[in-house]
Design a protein that fits this description.
The complex is a heterotrimer of chains A (about 160), B (about 260) and C (about 270).
Chain A: H1 3-28, E1 39-46, E2 57-60, E3 63-74, E4 79-87, E5 97-102, E6 109-114, E7 127-128, E8 130-132, H2 137-160
Parallel strand pairs in A: 1-7, 2-6, 5-8
Antiparallel strand pairs in A: 1-4, 2-3, 3-4, 5-6
Chain B: H1 2-31, H2 34-38, H3 40-50, H4 55-77, H5 86-124, H6 127-133, H7 138-177, H8 181-191, H9 194-222, H10 227-257
Helix pairs in contact in B: 3-7, 4-5, 4-7, 5-7, 5-8, 5-9, 5-10, 7-9, 9-10
Chain C: E1 5-16, E2 19-30, E3 34-39, H1 45-52, E4 60-65, E5 68-69, H2 75-82, E6 85-88, H3 100-111, H4 116-129, H5 145-156, E7 163-167, H6 175-192, E8 195-200, H7 203-206, E9 212-217, E10 220-225, H8 227-231, H9 236-243, H10 259-263
Parallel strand pairs in C: 3-8, 3-9, 6-7, 7-8
Antiparallel strand pairs in C: 1-2, 1-4, 4-5, 9-10
Classes of the chains: A alpha/beta (about 160), B mainly alpha (about 260), C alpha/beta (about 270).
Chain lengths: ~160, ~260, ~270
């Protein structure tokens, strides 16, 4: 096994190894959608973010337009503040609303944006005024039970008359 | 009873002593790795013997593992109507776990044992002493290139294993069974994250590479210079490397994949 | 550098993990001579050679080699000292993954900046001196024992050392190869103007070729002298050793209980 043959084989090995890594990164992973495009940031306050995590997608009309960059608790207003990173090519009106939605029935939380009608657009550092918190299952159940109880009380009342 | 305790105590002390010796050797090896890079031809040769000669077993095993994942995965997923998630199952299993771990185990038994045997035999035939007598440091000239050759080869082999496995899963799932090709790839791309999954897998394989190759060169260098000594060292390399891979896998997985909620 | 004594061992003791191997060794190796250190297997002669080479450090006493005390040298100093020495290992210890040519060229490539043309000339000269210039492209696995030993000798003298150490150079060789190696040891020593130390237990080949002999037993020097003096030494061990007698100061039987008892002839309870 002379030197040039070894060099050749090592070269081939390293080339296909790096090729495999590239294949994994591009074809298998989501590197293709990992754009290094320009972005801008906006903030949104929520009474309850549910299970929203950092790096969760921000979607509008079902299309991913950005990611959640950071989440923290505002100790003065006692609300959660989420910082969203949006791609610069997508411009949203000033009165856009943000909702925390669930992906599928039991999936991860993400933020859905619904565009408003204002002619002024959001800029870097702006705050979203209209927000809707996540649906918390316990609250939903207690609401349901309460309304069910109220209904049967009404029925009894009507029945008694 | 007392004999058993004495033996146990002696074994533990010997083990701790050996661990200390191995750590010092690791430091010495890193300190004297300059030659391995300045005369890169030496390391290149070792990449050939550790990496290129492991290609066949890695590629074929990767293919088969991927194919089995495809079969078993489809079996289970189609019961819940989620057979289109097959791509996700195959890709995540391979990239996160099976790629680094199985490739590491195969590397340990194929290349690790070969490295141990080679260094051990050089020790037994006094080649290392001869080198010392000629004022050439055998650690820098013989051990370090083999170490770096293994460390460089391991992540590449793990990536190749994962890639072949995904291809195997594709062959079985899409071509053979008939899962929708578009869904296979698109769901996979949506679920596999470059930073969290692929990069972590690469880091794992790099850590395994360091562990396996170091154990291999250390056992070889420390082997008793007889036939039984070399054979014992080779066995120890395979056993210790395999256990190290599995233990490190647990630690790394715990750090990387469950710490996501803390972010 | 014109010191008449190349190596001097002063009151040297050495213990291997608390097992004493050498006791109060005192010997000196004069420049330009071929000196043999002889004794049975396990008498400590190879250990002594390793101490001279600096591979082992004495427990007490000193080994002064080529003007340096081996115990006082740091790693760089030791390596500098070793570049002036050459060692022939028991079975050659050639690097099996390199050709004969590369083996001999090894030290030149590692320690000098000579261009490949010059190295080629030097390697060919060394191989010619041992008679193996035609075998330059062979691999060590293709050589016979005697040829491998000769290549190792060429490798040991690659940088023209001042001191050449031989660890049991005659082990396992056929009579022709024995004669060749013996001739070469003498020839190379004289032509290089070097000094040679041979550790061996081969009496027949060694005594005719060396200038001085040290006999060791149980880690001590028991006799010394020129080969002629050795034959007249009168030391019982030396007589037994030189004549190869099976019984004498070194007994034939390993210590054991009574023979009759082992055979079960004596009635023991």
């Amino acid at each position: 096994m002379n030197r040039s043959t070894i060099d050749l084989w090592v070269g081939i090995f390293v080339a296909i190894g790096l090729g495999a890594l590239l294949f994994l990164a591009l074809k298998v992973g989501n590197l293709a959608s990992f754009s290094t495009a320009q972005t801008y940031q906006v903030q949104a306050k929520f009474a309850n973010i549910g299970g929203l995590k950092v790096r969760a997608p921000v979607k509008s009309a079902g299309v991913v337009v950005g990611r959640v960059a950071e989440i923290h608790f505002d100790n003065e207003s006692y609300e959660a503040v989420a910082t969203l990173t949006l791609e610069a090519s997508y411009k949203f009106p000033h009165d856009t609303s943000a909702k925390i939605l669930t992906s599928g029935l039991l999936g991860d939380n993400y933020i859905g944006l619904e565009a408003g009608g204002n002619s002024a657009m959001l800029k870097d550092g702006d705050k979203l005024r209209i927000t809707q918190s996540a649906v918390v299952l316990e609250n939903l159940i207690s609401q349901f039970l309460f309304s069910k109880a109220a209904e049967s009380a009404d029925d009894k009342g009507k029945g008694a008359k | 009873m007392r004999d058993a305790l004495t033996h146990l105590g002696a074994a533990v002390t010997a083990g701790v002593w050996r661990l200390g010796y191995a750590s010092r050797f690791f430091g010495y090896l890193l300190w004297h790795s300059g030659t391995a890079f300045r005369r890169f031809r030496l390391t290149l040769r070792e990449i050939y013997f550790a990496g290129v000669l492991s290609l066949i077993i890695i590629l074929v095993s990767g293919l088969f593992v991927g194919m089995v994942l495809g079969l078993q995965g489809y079996e289970t997923l189609q019961r819940y109507g989620s057979s289109e998630a097959l791509g996700v199952l195959v890709a995540l299993s391979l990239v996160r776990e099976l790629g680094p771990v199985v490739a590491g185990l195969l590397f340990a038994s194929r290349a690790g044992s070969a490295i141990t045997a080679e260094i051990g035999l050089m020790k037994a035939t006094e080649q290392l002493s001869a080198m010392e007598m000629m004022a050439v440091d055998p650690v820098a000239r013989v051990v370090a290139p083999r170490f770096w050759g293994g460390v460089i080869s391991m992540p590449l082999l793990a990536a190749l294993f994962s890639a072949m496995g995904i291809f195997g899963g594709y062959l079985v799932g899409v071509v053979l069974i008939g899962v929708d090709e578009g869904a296979f790839w698109s769901q996979m791309q949506a679920a596999v994250d470059v930073r969290n999954d692929i990069l972590n897998g690469v880091i794992k394989s790099a850590v395994f590479g360091v562990a396996v190759t170091f154990i291999a060169v250390f056992e070889g260098y420390d082997a008793t210079p007889t036939a039984e000594g070399v054979s014992g060292a080779t066995t120890r390399t395979v056993v210790t490397s395999s256990l190290a891979i599995l233990a490190l896998d647990f630690v790394l997985t715990a750090l990387m994949f469950t710490g996501g909620n803390a972010k | 550098m014109t010191d008449p004594i190349i190596a001097e061992i002063e009151d040297l003791t050495f213990a291997y993990d608390r097992r004493p191997v050498l006791h109060g060794i005192r010997l000196s190796i004069p420049r330009g001579k071929v000196v043999a250190i002889m004794g049975q297997s396990g008498c400590g002669k190879t250990t002594l050679l390793r101490i001279i080479a600096g591979a082992l450090l004495p427990s007490s006493g000193r080994a002064r080699v080529l003007g340096q005390v081996t115990g006082e040298l740091d790693r760089d100093g030791l390596y500098a000292l070793r570049r002036r020495m050459g060692m022939l290992f028991q079975f050659g210890a050639l690097f099996t993954d390199m050709s004969v040519y590369d083996n001999v060229a090894f030290q030149m490539r590692e320690h000098t900046d000579l261009p490949e043309d010059t190295i080629r000339d030097l390697v060919m000269m060394k191989l010619e001196a041992v008679g193996l210039r035609g075998a330059a492209e062979l691999m060590p696995g293709e050589l016979s024992g005697g040829m491998a030993r000769r290549v190792a000798l060429a490798r040991a003298i690659a940088l023209d050392p001042q001191l050449i150490l031989y660890d049991e150079p005659f082990t396992g060789l056929d009579p022709i190869a024995l004669g060749v190696i013996a001739r070469l040891v003498r020839q190379l020593n004289d032509s290089l103007g070097a000094t040679s130390i041979i550790v061996t237990h081969d009496v027949a080949e060694t005594l005719p070729l060396v200038d001085y002999v040290y006999f060791m037993a149980d880690g001590r020097v028991v006799a010394q002298g020129t080969p002629a003096e050795v034959h007249r030494s009168g030391v019982a061990f030396v007589e037994q050793f030189v004549r190869g007698e099976i019984d004498g100061p070194v007994p034939f039987h390993y210590p054991a209980a009574g023979y009759a008892a082992d055979l079960g002839l004596a009635q023991t309870a």
